[in-house]
């Protein structure tokens, strides 16, 4: 595959698209290189909270020590991905924040569908997958984006997200990953895709806050379930303590948890690595 063009992000362009009256962001910082956008933003926001209004965005051309779930490292070639973090101060009870990873996943999936033209879906709790053709011609779901939410000591939340944009197959860390380029996206312009994702976050989070964190009344819980390809599948949930449980993922719980039907009855999971064990009858476009 010919090496794709990987231009640097243009700070002035991003400011014009995202910051200002009626725009989704109140402060934007565009960094050339950073260890982790989430780590950098958390440190800065705790030192001077007043300098970081809700919502604030940090995006980097190159992230050298990105972090995934359970502390896993996530490293990508320079300018090949969207690596960004949002600082949020939602006026909601802390208990409502458990839905943030799912709401972020919903926003990213919708943004990729609308802008990149890929049929993105969400794997519980915070992976975004897109269909690609495998070597044997079968259509399989591969991870194109991941999200991670951290609550800071002052109650603010940092939502970090990474989207693989122009990586080739040999630049991806695992065979279960893909990029927008490999998925045949309509655009791999990072500014265009990032703008769509942030506008999507703004719309979803605005509805969530307007309804006082009520994901049921706002319809957001149903929308998350609609795009969650995990539901209806047979899964194995690998837990932080090293144990694993198998069953059928039935529904999302009241806190955004995953309710799984097992041989011992229904079990509710708030964390864990979920593996899809077989194809389900749910359509990718469901």
From TrEMBL:
Transmembrane segments: none annotated. CDD domains: BPL. One of its GO terms (cellular component) is cytoplasm. NCBIfam families: birA_ligase. GO terms for molecular function: biotin--[biotin carboxyl-carrier protein] ligase activity. SUPFAM superfamilies: Class II aaRS and biotin synthetases. Residues 20-209 form the BPL/LPL catalytic domain. Its EC number is 6.3.4.15. This is biotin--[biotin carboxyl-carrier protein] ligase. Keywords: Biotin, Ligase. InterPro entries: aa-tRNA-synth_II/BPL/LPL, Biotin_CoA_COase_ligase, BPL_C, BPL_LPL_catalytic. Pfam families: BPL_C, BPL_LplA_LipB.
